[in-house]
TrEMBL record:
<keyword id="KW-1003">Cell membrane</keyword>
<dbReference type="GO" id="GO:0001594">
    <property type="term" value="F:trace-amine receptor activity"/>
</dbReference>
<comment type="similarity">
    <text>Belongs to the G-protein coupled receptor 1 family.</text>
</comment>
<dbReference type="GO" id="GO:0005886">
    <property type="term" value="C:plasma membrane"/>
</dbReference>
<feature type="domain" description="G-protein coupled receptors family 1 profile">
    <location>
        <begin position="48"/>
        <end position="298"/>
    </location>
</feature>
<keyword id="KW-0675">Receptor</keyword>
<feature type="transmembrane region" description="Helical">
    <location>
        <begin position="192"/>
        <end position="214"/>
    </location>
</feature>
<feature type="transmembrane region" description="Helical">
    <location>
        <begin position="103"/>
        <end position="125"/>
    </location>
</feature>
<feature type="transmembrane region" description="Helical">
    <location>
        <begin position="146"/>
        <end position="165"/>
    </location>
</feature>
<keyword id="KW-1133">Transmembrane helix</keyword>
<dbReference type="InterPro" id="IPR000276">
    <property type="entry name" value="GPCR_Rhodpsn"/>
</dbReference>
<feature type="transmembrane region" description="Helical">
    <location>
        <begin position="68"/>
        <end position="91"/>
    </location>
</feature>
<keyword id="KW-0807">Transducer</keyword>
<feature type="transmembrane region" description="Helical">
    <location>
        <begin position="32"/>
        <end position="56"/>
    </location>
</feature>
<keyword id="KW-0812">Transmembrane</keyword>
<protein>
    <submittedName>
        <fullName>Trace amine-associated receptor 3-like</fullName>
    </submittedName>
</protein>
<dbReference type="InterPro" id="IPR017452">
    <property type="entry name" value="GPCR_Rhodpsn_7TM"/>
</dbReference>
Amino acid sequence: YSSNITDILSLCYPHLGNSSCRRIVRPHSVYVLLYIILSSISVLTVTLNLLVIITISHFKKLHSPTNFLLLSLAVSDFCVGFIFIFQILIMDGCWYLSAGWCVFYIVFGLVTTSASVGTVVLICIDRYIAVCDPLHYATKVTVNRARMSVVLCWFSSALYTLAHLDNMKHPGGFNSCIGECVTYTHPVAKVLHLLLTFILPVSTIIILYVRVFVVAVSQARAMHSHVAVVKRQGSVKVNKSELKAARVLGVVVVVFLCCLIPLDIVVLSARFAVVNGSSVVFFLCLYYFNSCVNPMIYVFLYPWFRKCVKYILSLQILKSGSSEANIM
């Protein structure tokens, strides 16, 4: 009798019997701990990235191509903060919302993360041109081009996600039991997804930043020895601020890769087209946690960001003319 009670309690929907999915049974203290951790990360991610969004949007001194790319990354990270809410809902492996909300959760997560990957690639391209071709940076990388690149990145992410997900046509049609939220993609689409969101972006990011690192090191040595021109493939001296930006964004890129690669390796190991989200929840949370780390990197490495946060928290941005403040 007690075993029957245990079996019933381990179901997502006990009144549905064997047609219901099984819950992941954990001690109550573990559930409370996970709830506190995920809720804290969610609030912190939303708050910190909102500060980045307000900062770059409000202060005109920060309206540069590089900062517009950071703004795009902050928007995607801001959205990830809300994805944590869904992660809290499926802590026990059960999906209690409708099939429509399941589709929304999957699409919202994929669009946001795809846009995030695309934006990091754009940041790498921006730093590559700034460091490796500084003479032509102002003409090649403009504010309008940065904006158009960001819009194209988000539009492509949305179009790609909506096109390759079969869940859009059959919400809940691929669930093996009631209380499940799974993603189904055709095997060909799965290979394409791997290529477009992992292999190509990561390869591009690594190649570009290795090149940036090599040039930045040579330029730093040149400046240290008071040499105005570095005789290395005819490259010219790079502004110190560009090198500093490259280092800061290099930290962002490295942290991003450390959070992205484990998740993709786990997804690659899946042998079937249907992947249960709860089986990769830890690596998903690790990847999502990157969205909370990015603004922390700005806090520690960008003095202007710390100054802007003081402006915001003290409500000085409500004063007329505050957008013209010299915060650099």
